[in-house]
Amino acid sequence: MSLRERVEALAAQRRERYGQPERTLFAEFRAALARGEIRAAGRGADGAWCVNAWVKQGILLGFRMGVLTDMSAHPTLKFFDKDTYPVRPTTLADGVRIVPGDRASATARTWPRVWSVCHRCT
Questions:
Q1: Burial (0-12, 13-18, 19+ Cβ within 10 Å), 22
Q2: Taking the domains of the chain in order of start, what are their residue ranges?
Q3: CB–CB of 54/3 below 8 Å?
């Protein structure tokens, strides 16, 4: 079966738990995404962008199968995310703005399954 077929089949299963074979498949998917072999969207012949639904399913599968993990680099700057999406090393030269957007004040209400978005500096 192709990577696409395996991802679509696993995404359709809606499991409570995922084992090593499923995590290995997701790692293969994530590596292909990182290498640019597959893309979440593509430009059609008419120039319009079109979502690759199976790739979107694979990305969401990574969040579903991931385990919430403490990825804090410092005790005063807490960071929690799914272990299926490890932190990518970045430097100032990358031109990416990363801010602690998920910090909560003492009076803030928080909800599960909420994460921040990184913005590309222009």
A1: middle
A2: 3-120
A3: no
Closest Cα to residue 118, out of 101, 93, 94? 101
Largest distance between two CA atoms of the chain: 51
- Look up the pTM and report it: 0.74
Q: For residue 116, count other CB atoms closer than 10 A to its CB.
A: 13
pLDDT digits (tens, 9 = 90+) for 15-30: 889 999 999 999 999 9
The CB density around residue 10, as the number of other CB atoms within 10 Å, is 21
Cβ-Cβ contacts under 8 Å for 41 (sequence gap 6 or more): 49, 50, 51, 52
Distance from first CA to last CA of the chain, Å, rounded?
41
Residues 6+ apart with CB under 8 A from 90: 96, 98
Which top CATH class is 3-120? mainly alpha
* Rounded-to-10 torsion of CA 8, 10, 14, 15: -170
Contacts of 79 (CB under 8 A, 6+ apart): 70, 71, 72, 73, 87, 100, 102
